[in-house]
Amino acid sequence: MGQKILSGPILLPQNDSIDTYWILLKNGSENLFSLPSELTIMEDTLVSMYRKKYSAFQLKSQNSVPYELKILDHKGSVIYDKMVEADKRNDNAFLFGSCAFIPNGISRIYRPYKMNRIYRTMAKERAKKMFWLGDNIYLFPDYITSSQKKIYNSYLKVRKDRSLNTFLSCGIEHHAIWDDHDFGPNNSSGLFENASLTTTSFINFWNKFNVRDSGIYELVHHDKIDFFLTDTRTFYKVNEGSFLGVNQLEWLKKSLLHSKAKFKFILFSNQVLNPKTNHETINKGIYKEEKDILLDFIKRESINGVVFFSGDRHFAEVHTHTETLLSYSLYDFTTSPLSSPRHRLFFKEEKKNDDTRVPGSFYSNKNYLKCTIQKQGNQEILLFEYKNKFGKTVFQHALSEKDLGY
User: Where are any strands of DSSP class E within 16-153?
Assistant: First the structure.
């Protein structure tokens, strides 16, 4: 009866300055943790209910470092021992990525082999936070979303992937928004009948604690950046023209207005500024009214420092948009895919959608985005670097405070 760590410890979002680690064990129990008094432990009982030999725990720390995190086997031998000290990662660097298909079970029919080297590369980055921009798991075939047990088992299989776990457990703090494949079937809307099941799973595996009116959207603070994590699924198509929905759109406007951060990063799972995209987007058809309301608000209230981020497309690109009477241009940085297949068939058509694309930014291989705050004279500069699976920069773009309205 050997005890084994299958995934983690994964550093998840803080809640009231409390660090939260998620860990998955085989043949484990909470009695195997040798924890200092400032750490508490909570089990996700659904895991042990659905997988007899598995157990998952959240370890919560009051942020008082250093402390020792130790896990034992049933014989008392140490299987994990780490001294958690003050974070030495770059507090001004952040990673972004989307579309993280990892084949497991019957989904191997779609693509039988893994191409996950990119996660080992990302584990070496000196960054403070990672933002997953949707399609962080692929819940298909569709019958997987028919029960909580099947959904949980899919999450557990993905979390066990060695390359992915190398990145998840490297010490970076992980945040996530979702897209259709985390939420339900392909192109699923807020009307999906089993949304409550996928919502429970997403909340538990990503430590989501700020759930508003059934949606999962939140504000993550940093010293110089406020990150606005939107929910583009829960309210999509629930009412005519609904993409973010009335309540979320009002929350976003109010949060932008009251933000004291110099830079305001708005995270969507879908593109915002590309005028010719043929995918699900707030920039198309009847949903465009919500986008116009948002941009008009940013313009009317003279909110500086806004930058959009998006995923979904299985390629990377940057789009820019000049809004009349707004003192600066808006940018949308799209990064995709991390480990999902490339959609070669429509790349030729997508390349033609270059009216608002920043020249040279289109990239169709696996990639992630790194944003670093740098000092240049009296100004702070945002350096955006698209990197391939080996960590090589394939495109970069810099925006100064002046470029963003200051």
Answer: 18-26, 33-34, 39-44, 54-61, 67-72, 78-84, 93-97, 129-133
